[in-house]
Amino acid sequence: MSANTSQAPIQPESTLMHNEAAEASAVVARQFDANAERVQEAVARIREFDPQVVVTMARGSSDHAAMYGKYLIETQLGLVVASAAPSVSSVYQVPQKLDRALYIAISQSGASPDLLASVRQAKEAGALTLALVNVEDSPLAELVDIVLPLRAGKENSVAATKSYIATLSGLLHLVSEWSGRDALLTARNELSAQLAQAWELDWTDAGVSALKDARNLFVIGRGLGFGIALEAALKFKETCGLHAEGFSAAEVKHGPMAIVNEGFPVLAIAQEDDTRAAMDELVKEYRARGAVVLYASQSEPGNLPVVADANPITAPILAVQSFYRMVNGLSVARGHNPDTPPHLNKVTETV
After folding, report:
1. Could you give all domains of the chain from N- to C-terminal order, each with its CATH number?
2. 263 pLDDT exceeds 50?
């Protein structure tokens, strides 16, 4: 790792990442209020279109949010969700058959050429296109049929935090309105206040103690929590210079199990749904091997506290909010500046 030796030590509370992540509760409240009419109009148009499949288009953190959206849509609406590969349109230039598809593009900047090429081709193929985007006057916003602004405000830290949570909440807003399910609508209405609670559940001490000198780790989630595990693994690499791999609790039981042994660190994040028993079993097995397990779960009063009685659909969003505070502190403890990871830019434009 590369220590900051040429300047005064960074304090975790002074980073842009810390302060921007702390805004998530207010961002979500603002988004839900400002987008209420837009989401209702979007749902009316989607119902009229009557899609038979949903396709997502995204990269990086946005793609991890799309994974949450996949489980959300498939469990609440029964529609199959597929992730499109941007290079099929932008590099291989092969038209896809999308005439009954709702095509959801997710981006902070809305400017990447591969994303625009994919959406343009989807429209030509007859798809109904929708964008979740933070820059409202971006090329992507001008191109699609439906725009749902993230309303996260400017994000200066290279590491996405509030914009990632705003993407999750934007998907939740859309699907809750689309499904009309009372429990989902209630969970949505409680989210902003619960994010404020999640921010106060500080995992930093446990994370620094277990991971300050780590070289590798697994991040495990399942179902609605899988996309959050992928995002957490990315943030460990991005802000801490720490190699991390995100896995489903089901997939990790195959080949990857072989390297989990004495002292190997694991971050596991569970929600209280039908996936929890399998997560508990996996954590029990890892601990029996001597692995160092950080476990965020309502079912076990472990070393990572979570918001009590959170709906399992929103619990992963709350968990990533607590995680952001921890990984910011870990980054500083390992001698990094989480706002300026080496070799990275805030906006990445790919073809």
Report:
1. 17-191 (3.40.50.10490), 198-333 (3.40.50.10490)
2. yes
